[in-house]
Amino acid sequence: MPELLDDEQKVIAIDPDFCAWNVPKEVIGKMKNVQAICLQTTSFSWIDTAEAKKQGIPVMNLRGFSTEAVAEWAFMMAMNVARKLPLIIKDSWKQDFSKHQGVELKGKIVGIIGLGTIGTRIAEICNGLGMEVVYWSRSSKDERFSFSELADLMKKADFIFPTLAQNEETTGLITDEMLKNMRRSAIFVSIVHKIYNHDLILQLVKEDKLYGYAFETEKEKITDFEGNVWAGPELAWCTSESFRRNAEQWTKAIVKAVKNDYLTQVNK
Predict the structure, then answer these.
(1) Burial class, 63, CB count within 10 angstroms (exposed 0-12 / middle 13-18 / buried 19+)
(2) Cα separation, 180 vs 176, whole angstroms
(3) Among 177, 125, 152, which residue's Cα sits nearest to residue 135?
(4) Predicted local confidence at residue 5, as pLDDT
(5) What is the pTM of this model?
(6) What are the beta bridge partners of residue 222?
(7) What is the spatial distance between Cα 268 and Cα 262, in angstroms, rounded to a whole number?
(8) Residue 166 has pLDDT above 90, yes or no
(9) Residue 245, SS3 per DSSP
(10) H or E element at residue 155
(11) Are 240 and 69 in contact (CB under 8 A)?
């Protein structure tokens, strides 16, 4: 866009849907006289923040606008897998009291990996239903729940929710060995990608070595997979309340950036 290349001072507000979720180093390197970049999302892995820092451009994200929506969606996916809804759908909603027998959540151990705002809200929802919450976090603490080392959490949890931000530091954080050590009766529910081996989990479910798996996807659907696999559209944050908060926060972030206020800067 020519507007990015002129010499006028500017604040750039980016909706990732209009750039295919990718703002590479080459694009940022060509930008001229950019005061700040305001993202419409919490995620910032789709923009080269290191290059922006090199160019002296603060990058701001939005925080907390979709916490409730994403936490509720993640819990919905867990419920669907616990009650074997993927199998019921693939069986054309036929009743089978043996094959479609699910499990209850009360009394189960839920492991939260990453105790940020979304992880904390999922923990609260699970705790409210009588589940025992354990968590692993690099920095956050919460006395309401029990801390566990990551490898131990993977071994003992009945439900596992990775909720860490996706970036270079977290890529591959959950190793193949950890995945293979999960309980056969465990359910893995993901709202993030690339921090674990997706194909290995699909294989574990297919071989009946894992109760179930839920994740979001743009292209695939439940019927594309064998076993108790919930493959849902990427709609976790999509609620009317979340949309409203997103617009409000984005507008405020842009106005603050114009005034040299970079409170949510991610590339300091």
Answers:
(1) middle
(2) 6
(3) 152
(4) 63
(5) 0.89
(6) none
(7) 10
(8) no
(9) helix
(10) helix 150-156
(11) no
